[in-house]
Amino acid sequence: MIESVLSLPDKEYMLPGNRTCAGCGLGIAYRHILKALGENTIVTVPASCLTVLHGMYPITSVNIPCMNVCFPSTAAAATGLVAGLKAIGKSGITVVGFAGDGGTHDIGIQALSGAAERNTDFIYICYDNEAYMNTGGQRSSSTPLGVTTTTTPILGKGQHQKDMPAIMAAHRIPYIATASSSYPLDLYEKVKKARDITGTRFLYIYTHCPPGWLFPPKDTVKMGRLAVETRMVVLYEMENGAFRLTGASERLAAKGTRKPVREYIELQGRFRRITEEQIDELQRWVDSRWEEYLARQTPRPTEVAASDN
Asked: Which of 121, 127, 136, 240 is deepest in the core (most CB within 10 A)?
């Protein structure tokens, strides 16, 4: 267990300088993800902000192999990499598909579902900035209720977010986890755990986006932590179907404290046209989901042992 950022591996896989925006949550997350994965890793990436981070051939800001593919085929490409490595007798290499929410919830869900149904041995990581940020901030099915985007410019989005981890859970894959770039140690530990599991593993990483969400770049970590404190974001993992809250969300459940959703959304310009009715609906949705998670909580092994005595 990593106790502090000073205990993380020294080796850096992101080289100095990249093309991400100031305050990019993806940049924070990716640095810690690669530290957890290590050098024996191949990633495949569709059109996305991560393509921008890596850079255009022959220049790159990341020193691990990366295969760029078209928007819908991240999981299909990862499946091909797994098969190719097996065919040439290469073992001990972790294959990882990285895609944003648009490339996961919408455009890439077919290939991902097919790979998960087969339980193909790779990690799929969705980094969620809640819109198509690389192409101008269009609405995705991960965009929250009430958000103004370039494709919902007047009334904002009228639907709640798609629950992608729940969709993946329906495939009965061995490991699913959510994490946030604002809690890098929790993220690091979950990626490290996923690396050592066989089968399809799905990680869902919240990566806050200052230019797309319209908040100051200096507040990225603060915004991510506030998302958890208001329960707009919930940190958890499902291992072989057993659900439990983790990290800051587990501590929040133990304390029984919570902040209103309003504190989170009022700091972001993307919610500038949200109505009072939508705020109330968003709060009800967050509360209902939280209670559902609490009901599903699986006791830790030590808690089970204590209750048996």
From this structure: 127
| Domain at 152, CATH number | 3.40.50.970
pTM: 0.95
Tell whether 1 is covered by a domain: no
pLDDT tens-digit readout, 112-169: 999 999 999 999 999 999 999 999 999 999 999 999 999 999 999 999 999 999 999 9
| pLDDT tens-digit readout, 199-238 | 999 999 999 999 999 999 999 999 999 999 999 999 999 9
State the total domains in the chain. 1
Helical ranges in 20-135 per DSSP H:
25-37, 49-54, 74-87, 101, 109-118
Find the angle CA(181)-CA(117)-CA(106) to the nearest 5 degrees: 50
Is 285 within the bounds of a domain?
yes
Mean pLDDT of 10-36: 94
Query: CA–CA separation, 160 vs 136, rounded Å?
Result: 21
Alpha helices in 17-60 (DSSP H): 25-37, 49-54
**Three-state DSSP state, 202:** strand
pLDDT score for 7: 87
- Is the separation of the CB atoms in 141 and 162 below 8 Å? yes
Distance CA 93, CA 190 (A): 18
Choose among 81, 80, 47, 44: nearest CA to 62. Answer: 44
Positive or negative, the Cα torsion across 167, 172, 176, 178?
A: positive
Is residue 168 assigned to a domain?
yes
Mean pLDDT over residues 63-80, rounded? 96
Place of tokens 């949550």: 25
Question: Which amino acid, one-letter code, is at 134?
Answer: N
Return the number of other C-beta atoms located less than 10 Å from residue 211's C-beta: 14
